Amino acid sequence: MRFVLTLMVAALALPITAGEIVEEIAAKVNSEVITKSELERSRQALRQELQPQYANDPLQFQTAFAEREKDLLRELIDQALLTQRGKDININVDNEVVRRLDKVRKEMGLNTLDDLERAVNSQGGSFEDFKTNIKNQLITQQVIGREVGSRIQVTQERIKKYYEENKQKLERPEEVRIREILISTEGKEGAELEAAEKKAKEVLEKVKKGGNFSDLAQQYSDGATAKTGAGDIGFFKPGMLNPEIEKIAFGLKRGQTSDIIRTKYGFEIIRVEEKHQAGIPTLADAEEDIQQTLYYDDIQPALRKFLTKLREEAYLEVKPGYTDTGASGTDSYTRLVPRDMTEDELIAPKGKRGRRSLLPPFRRR
Prior knowledge:
Layout lengths: L1 H9 L5 E2 L7 E5 L2 E4 H15 L7 H12 L2 H17 L5 H14 L5 H10 L4 H21 L8 H10 L1 H4 L4 E10 L6 H18 L4 H8 L5 H4 L2 E5 L6 H9 L9 E2 L3 E11 L6 H31 L2 E3 L47
Helix pairs in contact: 1-2, 2-3, 4-7, 5-7, 8-14
């Protein structure tokens, strides 16, 4: 919920057209402007994003905040340039905006999009700005995919060379990545307990009939990651799980699903998404991860070059007192190409490419 509300604050940090200016301008990007208050809203969103990570270390928080704060204007300029490019090449994301809004609605546990609109407005924001921000993010992703990502090639020769030179770095412990569906029994007795068990059996039957485990987790699970992670609870090494669950999890093969497991939390069904044996993986097992690593190594300078070109072709003016770190050509564009982008959001290089999700931390069950 906190993350979604942070996005709502960030949604207000959008460039607006010149005809709407009522305050101090920080920068002009062709026909759009970025205002002082937009920068301040970006700062507020950044504070909300970082505070949970450094709640017990104010000094580290200040250091991390200062490092990220210096690039806020650059990020707004980059977003404006990429969004404008998307309009120039006629990218249409209207249908995806609707799907993304519905996903946010589900993550917040709201019944309708009208409820989502009221929730956004209650935070002091504008629902139209919120939708526009989502639209601009989607356009940005597609522009990066079409104009940069689709041109990057990761050859088999490079993959093999990386594997031979980095075998020791690729060594990993035995571990499994698990997705769960939890039907909670907390505070339930008698008829309610029986109803929970019946629900678990019905869900398991849906899984056995070919139902998508992630979708079923979002729909039925009471687990903490059900809505935001589709039941994905991350990687676990031996000794990190409840012994009963651990025995079952490490006994399953990749892609296999368990029967119902009774725990103190409720009735659980788990699926093994990934399984790694201890030691150095074979080239075949490591190929997707290596390809992804090389791809992201390549896309950073390629995206920098592309954005430099857009800057050179644009009318770009930064007002005195403000700094655009993008003008130096030495900045990183990691935040524009997050590692958890899906294939639909970012065009991959030719050939298969694995994705390393930003998984939630380990937890003992």
